[in-house]
Amino acid sequence: MGQGWMILALRLKEVLNVRGKLGEILFDGSARSLVMLLAQPVPPPGYIQSTAMHSNTENLECGYLSINTVREREHNSDKQFIGQKKGRMQDDRRLNNRDAFSGLPAELLDLVFNDLSIEDVLTLSLVSRYFWGVGEKHIQTYILSPLAPWAGEAIVCVGDDIEQGDYPPGMLTAKEENDLHEYLRNKNLPTNLSSFVDLCAWIRGDVSPSTALLGQLRESEQYHSMSDSDRSQLRNAVWPDLSQLYPYDQPWILRNLTIKAYVRSEAIALEPAHIHGPNIDFIGFGEVILSRTCWSTDSSISMAYEGNIHRGIWAGHCFDITTLGRHRQDAICDEWEDVSEEVAKEIAGIWESEYGSNWRDTISQRKHPRYYY
Question: In terms of domain of life, where is this protein from (predicted)?
Fold first, then answer.
């Protein structure tokens, strides 16, 4: 029958909602979900950036507050000039305090916004244009913060038939391995990654954080009393076109942060026209990651390829997807290796073994996939 495979971000305790034989999920487009979990957004002019680090990329400046940071501020911040309890502001309280808040300098008002839930940020932002000018960047931070949640996280595609204690080299420290074993023993489970996968949260690669905010905006009285142009501006702020954060006119690369190596999009795309920012039709960065991060004790892979794919050379490594321009800014003092040709050759070998010598034509005749941001 062949073993099943699952794509895991171990330290986040999250698993992608894709499961199947490797000979299925590697060729059916399932790996595309990895792209938006790793692609770092590139905000256009007008987006207000924070100076905080992304929570999942300790060695990589992302430039935005993480959702964990936002929540931590909600629960732990104790600014002395905030006396009211947390929770949604009622209209009467907001109107009574409007004059007092309107007199605050922008810097102090910014601290007030820092201490509020995102729902209250939106409510307070609708009080006036002055408030909106301060609150808009907090809304943008909230929308950007959960993007690329697996960037900088150790990723492994785990086979069901993995033995106890069989881990990719260097993925776990000795303490992490002991903690994982203790955790699994407390659950009365075998101490292997396959058991751990079953305890993880399933996630998708295309979740938008804006849905609730848009609903709140449309239910507010202020929204319906505004001009059409103002309503359009607010809608665009709380429900932005996320595709604008992943520009098509810049070259994108997949980075292996663990070994400081990168793969260029044009090297693995079947044709230049198949490249759409970080997304590539048919075979892209997701397929590269999946083909190199598999890990199982059992070599059964349910495909024709005869390589050692079940012991992936990138299993347990950390990745992100970014523009070549941003990479050059980030890596100005570091030595990185371009492994594009090596990876392209390996991809060609895998796909040729599955579809024959005319595999490029066979793949290109498929229906183009759709991408969701």
Answer: Eukaryota
% pLDDT > 70, the chain: 81
> Closest by alpha carbon to 9, among 144, 291, 168, 201?
201
Averaged pLDDT score across all residues of the chain: 83
CA 60 to chain centre: 14
Would you say 9 and 150 are in contact if contact means Cβ atoms under 8 Å apart?
yes
Residue 296 pLDDT > 80:
yes
Range name among 119-123, 211-215, 265-269, 358-362 with the lowest pLDDT average: 211-215
Start-to-end C-alpha separation, the chain: 35
Q: What are phi and psi of 369, to 5 degrees?
A: -70, 160
Q: Where are the domains of the chain?
A: 5-41+150-203+247-364, 67-147+210-244
d(CA 173, CA 157): 19
- Residue 130: CA count within 13 A, CB half-sphere: 11
Provide the sign of the torsion angle of the four alpha carbons 273, 276, 278, 281, taken in this order: negative
Residues 6+ apart with CB under 8 A from 229: none
Question: Is residue 152 within 8 Å of residue 56, measured between CB atoms?
Answer: yes
Q: CA-to-CA distance for 267 and 205, rounded, in angstroms?
A: 24
Residue 341: helix, strand or coil by DSSP? helix
pLDDT of residue 207: 61
Q: Model pTM?
A: 0.79
Output the six-digit token pair for 11.
């330290």
Burial 187-215 (b: 16+ CB within 10 A, else e): eeebbbbbbbbeebeebebeebbbeebee
Q: What is the mean pLDDT of residues 286-300?
A: 96
pLDDT at 59 over 60: no
Amino acid identity of residue 359, one-letter, is W
C-alpha to C-alpha distance for 262 and 327, rounded to whole angstroms: 10
Provide the 10 A C-beta neighbour count for residue 314: 24
Spatial separation of the C-alpha atoms in residues 208 and 149, rounded to whole Å: 12
Provide the pLDDT for residue 64.
25
Contact assessment for residue 340 and residue 59, using Cβ atoms and an 8 Å cutoff: no
Distance (Å, rounded) from C-alpha 183 to C-alpha 18?
24
List phi, psi (to 5°) of 157: -100, 110
